[in-house]
Structures are given as C-alpha cells and as structure tokens.
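#struct-help
A.M.: can someone run this one for me? Single chain, 117 residues.
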Amino acid sequence: MADHITDATPETVDLSDTAVKRIARILSSEPEGTSLRVSVEGGGCSGFQYKYDLVREQESDDLVIARDGASVLIDPVSLQYMSGSVIDFVDDLMGQSFQIRNPLAAAGCGCGTSFSI
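D.P.: on it. Structure tokens below:
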C-alpha cells in the first residue's frame, strides 16, 4: 500500500502517513500534552539544519499540526524556511529517520538533515 502524502500549501507544512504513525507512536509513551517540535537552526554542513525536540509547551504563535495522535509544533521563524514542506518518516536500508521534503531548499547534504536556501 502506498503512503498517502498530501502536498503542503505554501503557507503550511504537511505530514506523510508514515510520519503521523511514527510521531503518534513516539508520543504515546510520553506524558499527556507532549508534542514534537520541528525547528530550523543555523548550522549543519549546508547552512541550516532541522532540529527535533519533544516538548510540553506550545507557544501562542506556533503552527500546530495534529492528526491521528500525532502533534507537531513549528515556530513562525522556522516556518519561513519550511513553508510548503512535507515531513516524512523513512525506514530503509540506510536506517530510520525523519526527512523533510522542502521546496525552498536549493541544496542539501548527504546526511539529509541540513540544507541551504
């Protein structure tokens, strides 16, 4: 069965079905109200890198993506660099990881966690 991936609109970020399942599984063993925060920071081998944190605090201006037990928070500054992206979870011969398909990224690195615009 193919994974359902909805194209994100330019102002939002979307989650693939596999990402939703993995995030929900991770959050199921965390305290009530925990979310996955995805952010963009300076650094990495290509200029920017994605950061993933489990948090219990939500800011009033966060983008909240909630679906089927998965809850993802993205701050407005990071959203500028991630608009239109799709967060996916990949399990292949190279290992398991969250991967972000970012239409704004002009280049990426081999490890798949940093990018440049």
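A.M.: thanks! The chain has one domain: 14-116.
D.P.: also worth noting: The longest strand covers residues 35-42.
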